[in-house]
Model the fold of this input.
Amino acid sequence: MHKFLIFLLPLLFLNCYQVERNCADFKTGTFEFKYMLDGVEKTGTFTRTEDLNIDFYENRIDSASVRWINDCEFIQKKLNPKNQAEERAIHMKIISTSEDHYTFEYQLAVKMPYKKQRVEKGTATKLND
Done:
């Protein structure tokens, strides 16, 4: 019984840990992110306002509307989609924050009935306000 209590006590403290989420600090600003393209790590930047997201990557500029659900979640939809796949909205969720970066996950906002829902993760670093 004594050994069981020694094992149980640390588990109780681990369950009390909460991930920091100061999402409001990351709603707007200029950010940098890294991504893989054909096995090569690339860097892109984006600027986000309350209702607009502008991506800069691979010598391209791409813009999307942003609709905030709450301080930590928003829906992003391309303003000028070039094909049917780009017309689909993306659900973004900030899952943790630190002083200058945040970790997020994203997936299609609407589930496709014939496809398994894919959730991707990433990290963005805030460059300025």
Notes: The chain has one domain: 2-128. Strands lie at 29-37, 40-48, 52-57, 60-70, 73-78, 90-97, 101-108, 120-128.
